[in-house]
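Worked example

This section walks through a single chain of length 83. The input is the sequence exactly as stored; nothing has been trimmed or padded.
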Amino acid sequence: MAFFSPTALWGSLMGLPGMERVIAADAAHWRTVFAQDGLPEDRALVFRHAAEGLANAASVARYLDDRELAVARTALLALAGPA
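Given that input, the structure is written out below as tokens.
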């Protein structure tokens, strides 16, 4: 099972011993998961990081309201559609 691990939070842990290895493993895991979706790499990268940014903005500071999240979700799902 995969869990959301926002890259925005990894930076605060970089000073801890061994974290560079943990972060590299996490990034490799997400690359593999998204590659298995069958999306072209360019779309997968944009989709992955846009979704992560939206999730972080919504959960940490509520920079986005429910309507804005719905608009962004619709746009991301359209992007993930057939090439």
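What to look for: The two ends are 27 Å apart (CA to CA).
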